[in-house]
Write a structure and sequence with these properties.
Blueprint: H1 8-23, E1 31-33, H2 39-47, E2 53-54, H3 57-63, H4 74-87, E3 92-95, H5 104-116, E4 121-125, H6 138-154, E5 160-164, H7 175-188, E6 192-194, H8 201-210, E7 215-218, H9 226-232, E8 236-238, H10 242-261, H11 273-281
Parallel strand pairs: 1-8, 2-3, 3-4, 4-5, 5-6, 6-7, 7-8
InterPro entries: ICL/PEPM, Pyrv/PenolPyrv_kinase-like_dom, Pyrv_kinase-like_dom_sf
Organism: Streptomyces siamensis
Protein name: Isocitrate lyase/phosphoenolpyruvate mutase family protein
Length: about 280
């Protein structure tokens, strides 16, 4: 079980870090997050200059040998988040899928574990992977977000709750459905709204104008640039699982080349051994 007991000094540090993370969400000057999935990728992202580190739930699950989509248990997930938090000095936000819990009370328990793991932000998604419907009912999801907010408030930590709305990813609605859900989740205590799958500039602008809070957009190949999203008023830009996917694709290409052709060209451009080793040891 994850230990959720925090000392007064730890809570004080979390409060300061959470406030600093919250201040990074500025419409038109977005927080850019190249998502990490383990301690090594988190330290590399920090070294690259990121002001904060966000985990990708998919990348984290894959790194633990599990599929994405509410298939990972809370202790395994939060153990990985704790290792990420311990590896970096910048604020950490944890992607906790649906909250690693079946009900709202369980989501509150998860948030207490998130704080104990050293993270100061969470993503909570409304996708459903069981029961047939693509999305959780709005009222049900609002209760889960309210439970997350209440757990953070009880600890007096201004945890940044990012409400992920999967209307576009799951083909379950457009701008109107998304805005309806956004309003309900913000009223329940979310701080911002994350709409993966929406990258068309017209759609993004409609969401920026219609959401009464910071908007987070997921990017990857083919999406507008960060500067273009900034001009639309986006407050947060995330890479999601795309960096993890690219890294694992290198493993497959290199393995196939080595096994099939007996050559090693796929490994060109890799980290220098000493440089990477020094980065992991904290010597630089």
């Amino acid at each position: 079980m994850t230990n959720t007991n925090l000392t007064g000094a730890q809570l004080g540090s979390l409060r300061e870090t959470a406030a600093a993370f919250r201040a990074l969400h500025v419409p038109g000057r977005p927080l850019v997050l190249p998502n990490a999935w383990d301690a090594a990728s988190a330290r590399i992202v920090e070294e690259a200059g990121a002001p904060a580190v966000a985990t990708t739930s998919a990348g984290l699950a894959w790194g633990l040998g599990r599929p994405d989509g509410d298939r990972l248990d809370r202790d395994a997930a939060l153990g990985a988040v704790a290792r990420v938090s311990a590896a970096v000095r910048v604020p950490v936000s944890a992607d906790i899928e649906s909250g690693y819990a079946r009900d709202a009370q369980g989501v509150g328990d998860t948030v207490r574990a998130v704080l104990a793991a050293g993270a100061v932000g969470v993503n909570i998604e409304d996708a459903l992977y069981e029961g047939g419907a693509p999305l959780r009912p709005v009222g049900d999801q609002a209760e889960r977000i309210a439970a997350a907010r209440a757990a953070a408030d009880a600890a007096d930590v201004p945890l940044y709750v990012n409400a992920r709305i999967d209307t576009y990813l799951r083909g379950a609605g457009g701008v109107d459905e998304t805005l309806e859900r956004a309003a309900a989740y913000l009223a329940a205590g979310a701080d911002g709204v994350f709409v993966p799958g929406a990258t068309d500039p017209v759609t993004v602008k409609a969401l920026v104008d219609g959401v009464d809070g910071p908007l987070n957009i997921l990017v990857g190949p083919g999406a507008p640039t960060v500067s273009e999203l900034a001009a639309l008023g986006v407050a947060r830009v995330s890479a999601g699982s795309s960096i993890a996917q690219a890294a694992h694709a290198v493993v497959l290409r290199a393995a196939r080349e080595l096994l099939d052709a007996g050559t090693y060209d796929s490994l060109t451009g890799g980290f220098d051994y000493a440089e990477l080793n020094a980065l992991m040891s904290g010597d630089r």
